[in-house]
Write a structure and sequence with these properties.
two-stranded antiparallel sheet; globular; 155 residues; alpha/beta; 9 strands; 5-stranded mixed beta sheet; Glutaredoxin
């Protein structure tokens, strides 16, 4: 996946008993943020910051979706616990993870594990990838993404 190129179509199960389809979401800017796991400290921080800035993203004509390999049941609980105003997508088959190349070998407690590298992608209303962040540190990240989304509107 390369910046300034169209993102291929994909569909994933979403919270609220829905299916997210990229083509159906076109027309507005999308933020897709990939995170390792529900209810972990960094992921809770990141989701909370996107939640707190959600109204500003909406005002900028942008929808937010969080994506991890967790189950829909886990996502529903995480969404309810944090009162997230946006949907979470379950990528247990790693469809979108593979598309965006976010699964990496990591070391957790001294053991190698395959996991999602915290990454965020902004896709414009025409389905073109406009920006990517990889190896993200959660604190302050949502505000940085929002500034970029606002800059898209000026161009």
């Amino acid at each position: 996946m390369m910046v300034d190129h169209p993102v291929p179509e994909f569909a994933l199960p979403a919270t609220g008993n829905q299916t997210f389809t990229l083509s159906e979401a076109q027309g507005s800017t999308l933020v897709l943020y990939f995170y390792p796991k529900d209810n972990t400290p960094g992921c809770t921080t990141e989701a909370g910051e996107f939640r707190d800035l959600h109204a500003s993203f909406r005002k900028a004509g942008c929808a937010i979706y969080g994506i991890s390999r967790d189950s829909l049941k886990s996502h529903e609980n995480f969404k309810a616990k944090l009162k997230l105003p946006f949907d979470l997508l379950s990528d247990g088959e790693e469809t979108a993870c593979a598309l965006f190349g976010v699964v990496r070998q990591k070391v957790l407690y001294g053991k190698p594990v395959r996991g999602i590298e915290r990454s965020t992608f902004v896709i414009d209303g025409d389905g073109v990838l406009r920006r990517e962040w990889r190896g993200v540190k959660a604190p302050g990240h949502a505000a940085e993404v929002l500034e970029f989304v606002k800059s898209l509107k000026r161009t």
